C-alpha cells in the first residue's frame, strides 16, 4: 500500500475549501473500497463501506483484528438505517429518539445487506449515529454506512488524536482525516435493545442511569471468570471478556477509596522506585502530593472530581506514557459511579494479563 494520505479538516468550518476538499477526497476513497480513519465524538474510527465485504476485510487486515470480533456500523441519518438493520424494537426506537446522534451503539437485527464479516456471523449488528460534525459529513458525502471500529492496532489503546492513529496504522490504511482531538475519549456505550429489559454490555459516557430514564428496567451485563474463559466468538457483544485498550507498559491499578487509595498509590510508586522500574504516573490533581519525591514520568490526567475530563484524557495519557518508554504505569481507579464506571471498565480490561 502507498503512504497513508493525511487530510486536514476543521470541524468548525466544514464549508471551507480546505475542509470540503478533505472530506470529498476521503469520501471518494471510501466509495472506491478504501479505508479512512476519521474522528468521532468518542475515539477515531477506521472506516470502510459496510456494504462491501472486500472493503471491510481491509479493516481487519490493517488492525490485525481477529475475524471473530464484530464491527460497529455508523450511519448519518435514519434513512440509512434500513440498509443496516431491520425489525427495530420499540425500546430501540425510544433510545434512538433520545440519544441519536450520539455515543450510543444499539445491537439490532441485521439487514440482508450486512454480511457475516461485519457481525462475525452473529444475527445482530451494532449501529450508531455519531454526533461529530466531521463523521456525519463524511458518511453523508460517501453515501454509504461505514463499518468503523477504533483506528488502532487490535487490543491496543484507542486513539483520540490523528497522531495516535498514525502511530499504529500509518502505511496500513489509505487516509487519515484529521479533525483534532475527540470530545469524549471513550468508545460508545453498547446496548442490546432487542431484549426486554435492555442489556448494557459496554459502559460509556451514556450511563446506565440515563438509559433507565428511557428504558426503566435496563440492566448491566456482569462479567464473570467464566465469561473471560469463554471462546471469543461465543461472547454476546463487542468488548466483553477481553484484554483490550492496553498500553505496552504494565498497567497497575490502585483501588480502595479516599485516604487508603492515596496511601496505596504512594507506596506502589515508592516500591517501583526501589526496584528501579521506569515508572509512569497517571496523575490526577488529588494525587500530586503522593507523587512528591517520586522518580517518574508524569501525565497530568485532570481533576479527580471531573470524570468527564478524566475519560476524555484517559487514552491520551496511556499513549503519552508508553511513548515516554516507561515500563510500568500506575493509575488510580475513580469511583464506580456515572462515567467513572466506564473509565474503570477500560482500565480493568487494559490491566488484564490475558
Automatic annotation (TrEMBL):
The record lists ATP as bound by 65, 150, 158, 202, 245
Indicate what this protein is called per its UniProt record.
Threonylcarbamoyl-AMP synthase
Q: Which reaction does it catalyse?
A: L-threonine + hydrogencarbonate + ATP = L-threonylcarbamoyladenylate + diphosphate + H2O
Gene3D superfamilies to which the protein is assigned, alphabetical? DHBP synthase, Threonylcarbamoyl-AMP synthase, C-terminal domain
Task: Give the CC-aspect GO terms.
Answer: cytoplasm
Q: Could you tell me which residue ranges the YrdC-like domain spans?
A: 20-206
One record GO biological process: tRNA processing
| InterPro entries linked | DHBP_synth_RibB-like_a/b_dom, Sua5-like_dom, Sua5/YwlC_C, Sua5_C, T(6)A37_SUA5, TC-AMP_synthase_SUA5
**Assigned EC number:** 2.7.7.87
UniProt similarity note: Belongs to the SUA5 family.
Residues bound to L-threonine are: 42, 74, 128, 148, 188
Q: Which Pfam families match?
A: Sua5_C, Sua5_yciO_yrdC
Q: Which UniProt keywords apply?
A: ATP-binding, Cytoplasm, Nucleotide-binding, Nucleotidyltransferase, Transferase, tRNA processing
Any GO molecular function: ATP binding
**Source superkingdom:** Bacteria
- According to its UniProt record, where is this protein mainly located? cytoplasm
Amino acid at each position: 500500500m502507498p503512504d497513508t494520505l493525511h487530510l486536514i479538516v476543521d470541524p468548525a468550518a466544514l464549508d471551507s475549501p480546505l475542509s470540503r476538499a478533505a472530506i470529498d477526497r476521503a469520501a471518494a476513497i471510501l466509495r472506491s473500497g478504501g479505508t479512512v480513519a476519521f474522528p468521532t465524538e468518542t475515539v477515531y474510527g477506521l472506516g470502510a463501506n459496510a456494504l462491501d465485504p472486500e472493503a471491510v476485510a481491509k479493516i481487519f487486515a490493517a488492525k490485525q483484528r481477529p475475524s471473530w470480533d464484530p464491527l460497529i456500523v455508523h450511519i448519518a441519518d435514519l434513512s440509512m438505517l434500513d440498509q443496516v438493520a431491520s425489525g427495530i424494537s420499540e425500546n430501540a426506537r425510544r433510545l434512538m429518539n433520545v440519544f441519536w446522534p450520539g455515543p450510543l451503539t444499539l445491537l439490532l437485527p441485521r439487514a440482508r445487506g450486512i454480511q457475516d464479516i461485519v457481525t462475525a456471523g452473529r444475527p445482530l449488528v451494532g449501529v450508531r449515529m455519531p454526533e461529530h460534525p466531521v463523521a456525519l459529513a463524511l458518511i453523508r458525502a460517501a453515501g454509504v454506512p461505514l463499518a468503523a471500529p477504533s483506528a488502532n492496532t487490535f487490543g491496543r489503546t484507542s486513539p483520540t488524536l490523528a497522531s495516535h492513529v498514525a502511530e499504529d496504522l500509518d502505511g496500513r490504511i489509505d487516509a487519515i482525516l484529521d479533525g483534532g482531538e475527540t470530545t469524549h475519549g471513550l468508545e460508545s456505550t453498547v446496548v442490546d435493545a432487542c431484549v426486554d429489559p435492555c442489556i448494557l454490555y459496554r459502559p460509556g459516557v451514556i450511563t446506565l442511569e440515563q438509559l433507565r430514564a428511557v428504558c426503566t428496567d435496563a440492566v448491566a451485563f456482569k462479567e464473570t471468570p467464566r465469561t473471560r474463559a469463554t471462546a471469543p466468538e461465543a461472547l454476546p457483544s463487542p468488548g466483553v471478556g477481553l484484554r483490550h485498550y492496553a498500553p505496552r507498559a504494565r498497567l497497575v491499578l490502585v483501588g480502595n477509596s479516599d485516604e487508603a487509595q492515596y496511601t496505596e498509590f504512594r507506596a506502589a510508586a515508592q516500591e517501583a522506585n526501589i526496584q528501579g522500574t521506569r515508572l509512569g504516573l497517571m496523575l490526577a490533581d488529588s494525587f500530586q502530593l503522593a507523587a512528591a519525591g517520586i522518580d517518574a514520568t508524569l501525565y497530568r490526567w485532570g481533576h479527580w472530581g471531573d470524570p468527564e475530563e478524566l475519560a476524555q484524557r484517559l487514552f491520551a495519557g496511556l499513549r503519552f506514557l508508553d511513548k515516554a518508554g516507561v515500563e510500568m504505569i500506575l493509575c488510580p481507579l475513580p469511583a464506580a459511579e456515572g462515567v467513572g464506571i466506564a473509565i474503570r471498565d477500560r482500565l480493568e480490561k487494559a490491566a488484564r494479563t490475558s
